Every structure is written in C-alpha cells, then in structure tokens.
Amino acid sequence: RKLGIALVGLGGYSKNQLAPALQQTQHCRLAGIVTGTPAKATEWMQKYNIPKENVYDYKNFDRIADNKDIDVIYVVLPNSMHAEYVIKAAQAGKHVICEKPMAIYPKECQAMIDACKKANKQLAIGYRLHYEPFTREVMRLGQEKVFGAVKFIESSDGFRSGDPTQWRLKKSMAGGGPLMDVGIYAIQGARYITGEEPISVSAQFAPKTDPVKFKDVEETMFWQFEFPGGAVSNSTTSYAAGVERLYASCEKGWFELSPAFGYGPLKGRTSKGPIEMPIVNHQAAHMDGVCKDLLDGKQLPDHVTGAEGLRDVTLLQAIYRAAETGRKINLKA
Ligand code: NAD
User: Fold this and answer.
1) ipTM of this complex prediction, to 2 decimal places
2) 22 Cα to the center of ligand 1, angstroms
3) Under 8 Å between Cβ of 8 and 34
4) Are 22 and 44 in contact, with CB atoms under 8 Å apart?
5) Is 185 a catalytic residue?
6) Which keywords does UniProt give here (predicted)?
C-alpha cells in the first residue's frame, strides 16, 4: 500500500520538486491538495489525476479529517504558517510532514510536537538531506572520526534572492532572512558532521548592500559554533550571492561537499579522493523514507522529527540574539 499525501500550499517547492518526486515514490503518492487558488486546483486535478473530493481550500481544510485517502499532510507554506497548519493536520488525525524551518520560534515548535503527540500521530520535518547518500557519507566520516577528530568546519549556504516583494523578505512571514531559509542547512551541516550540539554561538550581521530590499531582514550574516568535542565551525548565509559548501578539517585529513545542500547532484571529495555515491531524487528519498517507517508502524528517526526541528529553530533564534547583542551566547543546557 502507498500512503496518500496531501500537499498544503502549491508554491514553487510543491510544484517543481514535491509533486514531480511523488511520481517516483514507492511508499507514497500524491492523493490530495490544499490551495486557496481555484485555478491551481483545476490545473493540478488534471495534471495529477486528483479527484475533486481530495481538493481542499484553507476554509474547509478541517474536513480532511474524514478523508480516508489522505494519510499524511505535508505543510509547504510560508514559515509563519507552519505551526497553525501542522496543529490543524494533527487535529484532523493525520501524520504530518512540515517544511523547514519547522517554525519561527521554539514555542511554536513545542506546540506542534505536543499536538502531534496528543493526536498520536508522527511529525517529520522536510529534512531531505538526511536520506541523501553523499550527506549520509559525510555524517559517517565526521561522526565515526574516519579522518580523526574534526577540528574545524566551514558550512555555508546562500543564494541571490530575486523578487523584492516575496514573503521570504518579510520578517512577519519568514521570521528572518537567509538564516531562516538556507542558513538552517549550514547549521545542520555542522551538527551532523560532529554529531554534537553546539555549546556556544557568536554571530555577526554583514553590512547591507541593498538596505531598501533588505529593510526587514538580514542580507548576509556569519556565525560560529563551539562543539563539546573541541570542533569549531564558521558559517555564512546570504541572499546577496551564492555559496554552498560544507568542509571539515580533521586531525588526519579533510572532507567536503560542494555543492552541499541544493537539490543535487551533490559532489564530494576527501583528502584521499572523490566520494562516490548514488545520485537520488532528494524529495522522493525523503518522502519514501518517512512513509516506509509510517507504514511499518516504526518511530521516525529522531533526526528527522519535530525534536530536531525544535533544536534548529532554537539555534536560529540564538544566532540572531548573538548577532543583535554582539555577545557570545552559552548554549549549554
Ligand atoms: P512559495 O512562495 O513558492 O510558495 C508558498 C505557497 O504558499 C504559495 O502557493 C502561496 O500561494 C501559499 N500561501 C498561502 N497563504 C499564503 C500567504 N498568506 N502568503 C503567502 N503565500 C501563501 O514558497 P516555497 O519555496 O514553495 O516555500 C514553501 C516552504 O517550503 C517554506 O517553508 C520553505 O522554507 C520550504 N522550502 C523547502 C525546501 C527544501 O529544500 N526542503 C525548498 C524550498 C522551500
């Protein structure tokens, strides 16, 4: 059996990545859609053969509870809307996948976790790279200390953002700028290479080169983590220009991915030569991985759940606090 997924929000990521990936998945299928735009509903129903009964808008969303075709609700909305729709999805008695960042504030993440727990449903975050072979290999190289202890990490993700009117540049909807959008990948990179939680953070905002476009959010920023095992990391995130690199220098060598975080193919090498791994569709691998566990009645691995989303959102806010105050922030519990 394939689990039926309903996509909530038919923007760029749903249209260009998730729906095409759902044509390749083994354990799930595109069963329904939630959209506020009738023209999109018509287009998607035709293109993906979605029956009318499986098409919802934001007003009748709660009726999805009665739809047996839909097992999983995948929330692909602007960041500020994740919490509300994840909680509604759990209350409708469905498993939930929520895009990154899980939410803007840790408090929202906790409410999302609590709602899913109360409904006895699982919550996955759209951490597609956790199912991606090159990424899994650098997790192994770092965490198993294949090149000795990791000494320092450079982990950066940014791109040149286009349309100045998009929600990604509005603090109320995005929660911040590139840190919220792609900086989270750089945070994840440092965390999954070390397999540790950072114990401190320092951060700096770069000067804005376009203060009009970036009046509401940062344009470029930097931060540094210290890890309990002795590794330190330095990261850049930006909407001014592209960067996409994860590099670890270890006692007895180094390894890197570049590109490291995009839709692929990712590329990697180590001080001993190229990293050779199969190239997969990230979104299909992620949704299949999550849905296989759901079908088997297994707990999802912790590093793709709401608990992991909450850790990242806590760090996102700590990075902003460090940059705003100019102080190194102690993250030890
Ligand atoms: P987008 O702007 O292309 O789409 C957003 C969708 O939300 C649109 O269909 C829009 O109509 C809908 N929407 C509903 N209510 C809205 C409102 N009040 N204001 C604005 N839009 C509203 O964005 P996207 O790139 O598809 O991103 C959606 C989510 O997916 C974000 O959380 C983003 O971080 C995440 N994302 C993840 C990845 C990944 O690789 N995992 C990649 C891209 C985006």
Assistant:
1) 0.99
2) 18
3) yes
4) no
5) yes
6) Oxidoreductase
Same domain, 199 and 83: no
16 lines ligand 1 (CB under 6 A): no
Average pLDDT over residues 195-216: 98
Catalytic residue among 127, 185, 192, 320: 185
Residue 167 Cβ < 6 Å to ligand 1: yes
Do residues 316 and 263 share a domain?
Answer: yes
Averaged pLDDT, 217-245: 98
Q: Give residue 84 CA to ligand 1 midpoint distance, Å.
A: 14
- Cα-to-chain-centroid distance, residue 135: 14
pLDDT of residue 3: 98
Mark whether 58 is an active-site residue: no
What would the two tokens of residue 320 be?
A: 């902003």
Query: Do 12 and 39 fall into the same domain?
Result: yes
Nearest-angstrom CA–CA distance, 116 and 65: 14
Q: In whole angstroms, give the CA distance from residue 256 to residue 324.
A: 31
* Residues recorded for the chain: 333
Kindly report, residue by residue over 260-295, the tens digit of the pLDDT: 999 999 999 999 999 999 999 999 999 999 999 999
Which one is catalytic: 100, 121, 127, 131? 100
Over the stretch 286-320, which tens digit does the pLDDT of each residue have?
999 999 999 999 999 999 999 999 999 999 999 99
Question: In this structure, is residue 306 part of a structural domain?
Answer: no
Instruction: Evaluate the omega torsion of the peptide bond into residue 101 and state whether it is cis, within 30 degrees of 0.
Output: yes
At residue 111, the pLDDT reads: 98
Residue 85: which domain range? Answer: 3-128+285-300
As for how many domains the chain has, the answer is 2
